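Here is the promised in-class demo. Please do not try to memorize the tokens; focus on the logic of going from shape to residues.
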């Protein structure tokens, strides 16, 4: 049986998954700069019996691998990202980043490691596969506009019937797999507001127009969008992450820059928040006589897991009886945003989660300088994705063919 063979082979290779993860962790690269990581991925496949390897896919160092089964069938895409973050690592790991100020603080090193070994294993078993597997190694998940857009425009989803992705989660229990149907992760928006007033001496405020006062009013007002404009049963957050108002204590600031982050769980709510931010911007000019210049960008959309595909994934995971997996559980919606959502706008699919709380039990969140994962989550990820692929590509199991 295909699944049994995949599981046995993956067990034999689990140490290699960890070795690859540690190498990648030690050599992180930022979004849109992953030259060596992309080369490492492409080089890995030189000795693997895949049908094709396409590099620089989408013009941004993406790598796409095709594995064709011995029998015709549908096409399933599986995706792993490989970029890192501009964070100075503080883990103290023996394989900590050697690239100062850059860190794999989100688990993408683990995603790539398990996917490489899984793809190798699938290629070794392709005489038992039905259909085609498209392995997507995607750069630049962390930084808008994200690497997914370029890969989609380049045709990575052409002919794809379903797409599956996994994220290891440092704050979820190791040994558990989590799924959710429907709207699963938030959409993200970014805004930048420059408030231009008139500078002056602190002793003569009547001769100036204080940009800090006007900007502070804006910050307080936008918080009412969530509390007074959004349905309490909906999800939204507005965060001011940057207020560039540094100056001298006795000088009235003439200009201030504000940057904000917006997360929403529906297109309708996203529109309400944007409308509110724009309205308060206009109000600043009328109320304070300043000039307010707003840049507002909607990037990653809501991540929507297709209910049918998600149910099939759940069935495949439970039926596989993976020894390392103690439970397959439904999860509440997840606050972070993910550019995997762009794929799911084009084809049905499912993005699910593998618990990875470290052995120490000290779980730092993603994007934290001390972020780490339990490396047991890597073999679980490989086996979980193998179970889904086998259910799709094994001629004896048709749960995806309805």
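The designed amino acids, position by position:
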């Amino acid at each position: 049986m295909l699944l049994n063979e995949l599981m046995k082979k993956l067990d034999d290779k689990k140490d290699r998954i960890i070795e690859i993860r540690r190498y990648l962790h030690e050599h992180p690269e930022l979004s849109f700069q992953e030259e060596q990581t992309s080369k490492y991925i492409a080089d890995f496949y030189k000795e693997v019996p895949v049908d094709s390897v396409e590099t620089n896919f989408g013009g941004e160092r993406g790598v796409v691998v095709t594995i064709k089964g011995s029998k015709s069938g549908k096409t399933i895409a599986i995706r792993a990202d490989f970029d890192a973050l501009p964070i100075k690592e503080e883990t103290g790991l023996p394989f900590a980043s050697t690239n100062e100020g850059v860190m794999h603080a989100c688990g993408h090193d683990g995603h790539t490691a398990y996917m490489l070994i899984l793809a190798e294993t699938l290629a070794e078993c392709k005489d038992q596969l039905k259909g085609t597997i498209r392995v997507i190694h995607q750069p630049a998940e962390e930084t808008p506009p994200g690497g997914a857009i370029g890969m989609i425009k380049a045709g990575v989803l052409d002919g794809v019937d379903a797409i599956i992705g996994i994220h290891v989660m440092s704050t979820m229990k190791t040994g558990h797999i989590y799924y959710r149907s429907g709207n699963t992760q938030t959409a993200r928006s970014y805004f930048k507001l420059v408030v231009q007033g008139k500078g002056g001496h602190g002793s003569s405020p009547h001769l100036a127009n204080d940009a800090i006062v006007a900007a502070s009013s804006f910050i307080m007002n936008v918080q009412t969008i969530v509390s007074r404009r959004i349905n309490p049963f909906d999800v939204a957050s507005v965060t001011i992450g940057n207020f560039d108002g540094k100056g001298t204590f006795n000088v009235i600031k003439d200009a201030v820059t504000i940057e904000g982050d917006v997360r929403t769980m529906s297109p309708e709510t996203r529109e309400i928040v944007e409308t509110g931010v724009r309205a308060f911007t206009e109000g600043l000019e009328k109320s304070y006589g300043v000039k307010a210049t707003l840049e507002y960008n909607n990037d990653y959309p809501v991540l929507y897991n297709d209910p049918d595909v998600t149910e099939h994934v759940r069935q495949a995971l439970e039926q596989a009886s993976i020894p390392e997996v103690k439970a397959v559980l439904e999860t509440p919606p997840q606050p972070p945003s993910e550019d995997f959502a762009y794929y799911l706008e084009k084809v049905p699919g499912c993005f699910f989660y593998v618990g990875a709380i470290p052995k120490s039990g000290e779980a730092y969140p993603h994007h934290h300088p001390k972020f780490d994962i339990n490396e047991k989550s890597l073999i679980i990820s490989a086996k979980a994705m193998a179970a889904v692929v086998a259910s799709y590509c094994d001629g004896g199991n048709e749960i995806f063919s309805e």
